[in-house]
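User: Let's play a game. I give you a shape written as tokens, and you guess the letters that built it. Ready? Here's round one.
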């Protein structure tokens, strides 16, 4: 099963500036939530990571 983690980060997409905003089961829910929460703006970017459930790996 695939899960999608949504992060808001700076415009350079550095890992140090990531703030997790949720975990979702479909990409459409991620996009809808990011638009509803207004995570997109001129000072930030949104990063969506696709991960597999029950798999041990570095994110």
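Assistant: Ready! My guess for every position:
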């Amino acid at each position: 099963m695939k899960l999608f983690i949504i992060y808001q980060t700076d415009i350079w997409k550095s890992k140090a500036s990531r703030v997790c905003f949720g975990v979702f089961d479909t990409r459409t829910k991620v996009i809808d939530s990011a638009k509803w929460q207004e995570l997109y703006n001129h000072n930030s970017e949104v990063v969506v990571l696709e991960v597999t459930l029950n798999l041990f790996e570095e994110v």
